[in-house]
Amino acid sequence: MAILLAAGPASGAEQKAAAEDLTSMAKTFVDRLAAGDFATAVKGFDPAMTAALPADKLAEVWKTLNAQAGAFQKQTGARSETQAKYRVIFVRLKFEKAELEAKIVFDESKRIAGLFFVPPPSASSEYRPPDYDRPGSHRDTEVRVGQGEWALPGTLSSPTSSHAAPGLVLVHGSGPLDRDETLGPNRPFRDLAAGLASRGVAVLRYDKRTRVYAARLATERDDLTLREETVVDAVEAVRLLRRSRGVDGARVFVLGHSLGGVALPRIAALEPGIAGFVMFATPSRPLQENFLEQMTYLSGLDGVVTDEEKDRLESIRRQVERLGRERSAGGDSDDLPLGLSRAYWDDLLRHDAREAAAALTGPVLVMQGGRDYQVTRQDFDGWRRIMKTRSDVVFKLYPTLNHLFMAGEAKSTPDEYLIAGHVAAEVIEDLAAWLKARTGAAAPRA
Question: What is the pTM assigned to this prediction?
C-alpha cells in the first residue's frame, strides 16, 4: 500500500473506479437494511461503528425511520463526495412519505465509518407552502430590525386587507437560527407567518443575531447572554412592528418559541404595553434540567443505555452540578452544558419561572406539543400550576405534535426533524382565534 501511495495521485479513471466500487457497496448496504439483514450489514463497519451501532441498534434506527417517513420503497440514485480522508456516498431513498439520503462514510480501508440519514439537497432548500397559506391574502416585505452595528434582516408578512391588523413578533429558540427557524426541510416560523397573515395578523420574523454576526460574536463569547442574543433584538422588532403601515401599534403581541419564551418577561420589561404573549413550547423548569432530561431520553430511545452513554450522562450531570456550585465563586467557562459561557449560564440561573409569569401582565397563551421531548408535558403542567389563579391565561396541549408543532406518531426523535412537514393547521387556527379574541375582532372563517 505504501508503494502505491508513493507513486502519486490516482488517475481520473482510478478515482472513478474507486467511487463506483464504493457506490456499489453503499447500495448493497441499503439493500441489506431494506431486507432486514442487519447482522450482515454491520460486518462492513469499522471498530468504532461496530461498538456504537451493533445490529440490534441498527435495526431500531431503520424501524424508527420507517415509522416516521413511511415504508421504504426504493433507491433512486447515488452521488459521491470526498471529505478529508473519507469518501462519502449519498444514496437517495424514497419512502412513502418523504425522500431522504443515506449518508454513508467510508474510510481508506473501505469500511463504513459513519452513517446518517439526511434530507437531499433539494429537500433542504425547497419550501412548499402549507394548505392553510391563502395566496393573495397577504404580502411579504423585506425589513431591517434595529439600526447600526446589530441591524438584522427580516420579513414582514402583512394581510392585504385595508383594516389595521394586530401584529405578532416571532422570537426564536436556541441556536443561530434564520427568520424561518429552519431545521432541515422544515420552516416553522414561515408556516406561522403565512398561516396567520392569511387570517388577518401581521407577522414579523427576522434572522437571529448569532446567525448574522456569528464571526464577531465568537470573539465576544464570554460576554454573551440571553439579553444580547435575543432580548434586545426582539424589543427592536416590537418597535418596528408597532410603527409599520397597516398594523395597529396598540395590538402587537410576542410569541417566544422554546428559549425564546424564556426571554418574554425581559422583552416585556424593556417594552411596556405589549398586548399579550404566546409561550410556544416554553420550559417552566431551569434549562439545565431540561437538557439533562433530554439527553437521558435520547440515550434510552433504543431501549438500551450503553456504558459509553452512561459515562456521557454522568459527565452532563457533573456539568449541571458545577453550574450552581461555582456560580458565586465566578468559576470558568470550561466544561459547562451546551458549550455556553459562564456569563450565559449565570444569566439563565437568575431566571425564575414564577417571577417570569408575574412579569407577563398581559394575556398569555401557553401552547405545547404532547410528543415534544425537548420541552415536555412536565413544563406545560408547571405553567398550569404557576398560573392557575390567572383568568387571562389559556392553555393548549396538542398530543400528537412535536417541538416544531408538527404531527407524528410514536416517540419523537431528532431524525423526525429531517422529514418535511408543516406546523399543524389546528395550531394556526387556535393562535389566530386567540389573537383576534384579544383584539375584539373575529378571525376570518377558513
Answer: 0.74
